[in-house]
Amino acid sequence: PAALVLLMAPFGSWDAHHTFCSRFVTPYLFPCRCTVDDRVTRVAWLNRSTILYAGNDKWSIDNRVVILSNTKTQYSIKIHNVDVYDEGPYTCSVQTDNHPKTSRVHLIVQVPPQIVNISSDITVNEGSSVTLMCLAFGRPEPTVTWRHLSGKGQGFVSEDEYLEITGITREQSGEYECSAVNDVAVPDVRKVKVTVNYPPYISNAKNTGASVGQKGILQCEASAVPGLVQWKAELANGLEGVRIESKGRLSTLTFFNVSEKDYGNYTCVATNKLGNTNASIILYGRCPVYLQ
C-alpha cells in the first residue's frame, strides 16, 4: 500500500490547485507550498470539509493519518495504506496576521486491474449459444478484452465484458483468454476452457491389401467429442489375435501374421451421445511378389 504525504513548505505560491495520482504500491509526496511574509498563527489540513489536523491536534479518527512535522518552514501529514476512499480534494489552510491562505491538491487513487468474476469452464453441444463473462475492477476502469487462443494463433474476438457466441462450432472450442488493462500495472489475465461436443464423423477409411504371412493394418480416422471408436468383424473368428490401438483420431487394427481367414469386411464404428456413424473396410489378399 502507498503512503500519502501532504506537505506545506515555505516556497511556491498560494491558491494553487494540483492534481496528483497515487498508486497502491508507490509512495507519493503531495506538496502544499507557499511564501509566507506574515506571521503564521494557525495551520490545518482538511479533506473536503473534514479537518484532519489543526496544528498538532489530530481531529481525524483514522489511525492511518499521522502528523510528520509542524515547524515554521514545514507542515506535513502522512496517510498510510492509501485506498480509493481517500480520493478527493485536500486543503492546506494557513491563518496569518492578515488573512487566511489556502492551497489545494486533488488526489486520484489508481488501482491495478483485477478480474473479480469470470465464467467457469463450460461444455456445450455444437450449435448452442454461449455467453462468457469477465468482470474486472480498477481505477481507471480497465478495458476488458476476450481472445480465442486457437491452434492457428491468438485471434481478436471482442472488447467487452461479455462475449456472446451464437451457434458455436467445433472450430471455436478451446481456451478463451480474458485480459483487463488500465496501464496502472500489468494486465490481469484469466482463461476459460470451452469444450464443444459434436456428432462423430469418419474422414478416412480405406480398403487395404496384405499377403498371407505378412503384417496387415487397417486404419480408420474418426472425429467426435466425446468420442468412442469400435471395430466389428463379419468373420467367424471375429477380432481374435488382432491388436486394436487408438491414438487421437486414428484407430488401427493390426494383423501380425495374416491368414486366409482374416480376409473380409471390417466395420469401424464411431459413436457418442450425439449420434453414431460407421464405415466398412476390407482386408483383401495381395499376391506375393517373387524376385527373379
TrEMBL record:
Belongs to the immunoglobulin superfamily. IgLON family. GO terms for biological process: cell adhesion. Keywords: Cell adhesion, Cell membrane, Disulfide bond, Glycoprotein, GPI-anchor, Immunoglobulin domain, Lipoprotein, Membrane, Repeat, Signal. It comes from Bubo bubo (Eurasian eagle-owl). It is found in: Cell membrane. InterPro entries: Ig-like_dom, Ig-like_dom_sf, Ig-like_fold, Ig_I-set, Ig_sub, Ig_sub2, IgLON_domain. GO terms for cellular component: plasma membrane; side of membrane. It holds the Pfam family Ig_3. It comes from the Eukaryota. Its main location: membrane. The lineage of its organism: Eukaryota, Metazoa, Chordata, Craniata, Vertebrata. This is Ig-like domain-containing protein. Residues 34-103, 113-195, 199-282 form the Ig-like domain. It is a lipid-anchor; GPI-anchor.
